[in-house]
Amino acid sequence: MYKMGNALALSCLLLLGTAGCSSVPTDEANGASTANDPFEGFNRVMWDFNFNYLDPYIVRPVSLGYVEYTPEPVRTGIANFLSNLDEPASVVNNLLMGNGTKAMDHFNRFWINSSLGLLGFIDVAGYTGITKQDNKSFGDAVGHWGVGNGPYLMIPAVGPYTVRETTDFVDGLYVPLSLLNFWAGVGKWALEGMETRASLEPQQALIDDSPDPYILTREIYLQRQDFKAEVEAPEENAEEEALLDEYLEDDFDFE
Fold first, then answer.
1. What's the domain count of the chain?
2. What are the percentages of helix, strand and coil residues in the chain, rounded to 5?
3. Nearest to 133 by CA among 107, 156, 111
4. pTM assigned to the model
5. Is residue 54 one of the residues assigned to a domain?
6. Could you say which residues form the signal peptide (predicted)?
7. In degrees rounded to 5, what are phi and psi of residue 166?
């Protein structure tokens, strides 16, 4: 229930913050995208529906209206509270990934903000210098240990999704997420989505100027999924990067 896919707003221009790299991975043999996208025909239809109709006429105006007319202290408190609900799941998932230090940060942030921070509305832990780490889902944890993304999907009124993300229902088994009923989960989904959609507004032109916005969003989304799962680059790529670094150090002196 809690993990209903990415929020409708989150699906709009998702991950365009990293869209400066507009190159698309291709298969050297035929120039085709290497993404696992067996339902591309259906996905493109859903892309048009989500991004050409739902976003400009519903998601974008609602998100911008929420940000413009809700006092910033109220929005900040709500965002802190909702983020705090995810901390316990991130503790477990970071432990599964072998990130002990990050897991401890999530744990400390949860108990401090839940108690001293009035159920998380005030980020007391942040004031004490405890780093706010990116939340990790169960799908990130299994991806870290070699489970692939699986087929890519563009879901109506939801947006980009991968089969691996279906495992994120596990996160809803931990308190306090397990205490949310259906409508509370919908509220969390919508509020977080509006904040995310509004924050991406300055980057709208990146997707508008792309020759194929569907492919651009798909590739960035899949790269982001691997980044969240902390999937290591293939060994050959790491070797090439090391050789390039060595070449630059030997042949270029910027001092």
1. 1
2. 65, 5, 35
3. 107
4. 0.76
5. yes
6. 1-23
7. -65, -20
Read off the tokens for 171: 């996160």
* C-alpha radius of gyration, the chain, whole number: 20
Q: Which domain holds residue 54?
A: 8-16+34-251
Angle between helices 40-49 and 213-228 (to 10 degrees): 100
From residue 50, alpha-carbon distances to 6, 136, 233 in Å are 13, 26, 32
For residue 128, the tally of other CB atoms under 10 A from its CB is 11
Residues 6+ apart with CB under 8 A from 224: 14, 15, 18
Q: Is residue 231 part of a domain?
A: yes
Q: Is residue 26 part of a domain?
A: no
Tokens at residue 42, please? 């259906």
DSSP conformation class of 58: I
Which pLDDT tens digit goes with each residue over 9-57? 334 434 333 333 334 444 433 334 457 899 999 999 999 999 889 999 9
Per-residue pLDDT tens for 55-101?
999 999 999 999 999 999 999 999 999 999 999 999 999 999 999 99
- Residue type (1 letter), 190: A
Does residue 25 fall inside a structural domain? no
Confidence of residue 238 (pLDDT cuts 50, 70, 90): low
> How many angstroms separate the CA atoms of 182 and 187, rounded?
9
